């Protein structure tokens, strides 16, 4: 979200993306981002034009991301993480995706602005930004 709407934390996310060798996210992030943008529009935090621009930017950049598919093993892992860390479902899917990337040998920095999700990521020994 913070890449597509100027808000608190945007500069941190932009800097992280700029220095990253690759940016990965879960396939469901696209739907989550579109839902969040639509909510911002409904709440009048975005004009119709700003919404169109944000969606266009998301669509342009989406292909550059490394997309983690939601598979049966991933959702099983996410279920266990949700239970262990009291996470919401999609948050657990994001965390499970990061853990899968790390297990595959990736150097993963986990970026979230959700306190509970960040706490869970730290407990799973991920590097969390912002700290």
Structural class: mainly alpha
How many angstroms separate the termini? 18 Å
Tell the overall outline. globular
| Beta strands, count | 4
| Rounded mean pLDDT score | 94
Largest sheet: 2 strands, parallel
**Continuous helix count:** 6
Helix content: 55-70%
**Beta-strand content:** 5-15%
> What does the radius of gyration come to?
15 Å
Q: How do the SSEs run, as a string of H and E?
A: HEHHEHHEHE
Write out the strand line-up for the largest beta sheet, numbering strands in chain order.
1-2
Q: Spans with pLDDT under 50 lasting ≥5 residues?
A: none
Question: What's this, in brief?
Answer:
This protein has helices spanning 10-19, 29-42, 48-62, 72-85, 89-103, 115-123, and strands at 24-26, 66-68, 109-111, 127-129. Helix 6 (115-123) links the parallel strand 3 (109-111) and strand 4.
Write a concise keyword list for the protein shown above.
about 60% helix, two-stranded parallel ribbon, single chain, mainly alpha
